[in-house]
Write a structure and sequence with these properties.
The complex is a heterodimer.
Chain A lengths: L1 H22 L3 H35 L2 H8 L4 H14 L4 H13 L4 H10 L7 H8 L1 H25 L4
Helix pairs in contact in A: 1-2, 2-5, 4-6, 6-8, 7-8
Chain B lengths: L1 H45 L11 H14 L4 H13 L4 H13 L5 H8 L1 H29 L1
The chains are: A mainly alpha, B mainly alpha.
Chain lengths: 165, 149
């Protein structure tokens, strides 16, 4: 546990050292990066609070049995359908969703279904008009269709390669 | 009497669940901050230099697009806008599609954060498979779009 904490802090220390190192040559770049990170943190802190509430609720109400049934090994085709639909519907940056997925994984969710969820997050219906505007309707249609289709291939492969985790 | 007891038990359960979640957060917070610092460093460094990355070679540009998308980060909308602008600069649609695909499916800079939460093997396998699929989807999509023209 202590070793893991050390590793995590070491990564942060490494990034801070990189910033210090680069600040000698690119002070403007570092200033901008710090400013952007600060803005980002300021924006996501309330969201992190919300995620914490969701995580608590997940820990409280979503039991291993329920997750196992709907997203676990015996969830069948319904599990794939739930995961793909949830990916399309649920928005928000992946880094905010990872802690929630961690809880689901702990409760028995399959790796393949987590991968499907993360992949279909790229099908974003509200953004389609922009994709059509820039690249045309047939492009938007094929790209969206193939993203959705390949999410299942992706899930199957990720599940197969990471099954012994 | 029984009601009060069950309320007390519920409060205790909430407290335990909250503590568990908070502990999970506390453990991963340094990684999140480090990842955000790294993401913004990469983003600020590359902004405005997108066109300079491409060579004009059809195949090289596809790989460059896919690699560049893997190191970038943001909502898919941003990649559509950058992609649209790149197309105006004459970059091939294949390279742009590879860029758009990996932008949202591969996250090299976010990898440490994904590893902490979902495990090393899962994160690495997922990103490698997503990278390969991104190139395949790009080829098939562009081929079909050109075929229908």
């Amino acid at each position: 546990m202590k070793k893991n904490n050390f590793k995590r802090n070491l990564f942060l220390l490494g990034v801070v050292l990189l910033y210090i190192f680069l600040s000698f040559w690119y002070p403007e770049l570092i200033k901008k990066s710090i400013g952007k990170t600060w803005q980002m943190l300021y924006r996501i802190i309330p969201l992190l609070g919300l995620v914490l509430i969701f995580m608590t609720l997940t820990n409280l109400y979503i039991t291993s049995g329920k997750v196992e049934k709907h997203l676990g090994k015996k969830s069948g085709w319904k599990g794939w359908a739930y995961a793909s639909m949830a990916g399309v519907i649920i928005s928000g940056p992946a880094y905010l969703l990872f802690p929630l997925l961690k809880e689901l994984k702990k409760s028995g969710a399959k790796n393949s279904l987590i991968a499907v969820f993360l992949y279909t997050r790229n099908v974003k219906i509200p953004f389609l008009p922009i994709l059509i505007y820039y690249f045309g309707i047939s492009y938007a249609f094929f790209l969206t269709f193939f993203i959705f289709l390949s999410s299942f291939i992706n899930g199957a492969l990720v599940g197969w390669f990471s099954q012994d985790e | 009497m029984g009601n009060r007891k069950s309320k007390k038990t519920m409060r205790k359960k909430i407290k335990i669940a909250f503590k568990k979640s908070l502990q999970s957060y506390k453990e991963s917070l340094p990684i999140l901050v480090a990842t955000l610092l790294l993401l913004n460093l990469v983003e600020v460094f590359w902004s405005g230099k997108y066109e300079q990355l491409f060579t004009g070679n059809y195949f090289k540009d596809t790989i460059i697009g896919a690699l560049f998308g893997s190191f970038s980060f943001g909502i898919p909308l941003t990649s559509y806008i950058i992609g649209g602008e790149l197309q105006k600069e004459g970059i091939s649609l294949l390279a742009i599609t590879a860029f758009i695909m990996t932008w949202s499916t591969v996250g090299i800079v976010m990898l440490p954060w994904e590893i902490v939460n979902l495990g090393k093997r899962f994160a690495i396998v997922r990103n490698i498979i997503n990278f390969i699929l991104a190139i395949i989807i790009s080829i098939v999509t562009v081929y079909l779009v050109n075929f229908l023209k």
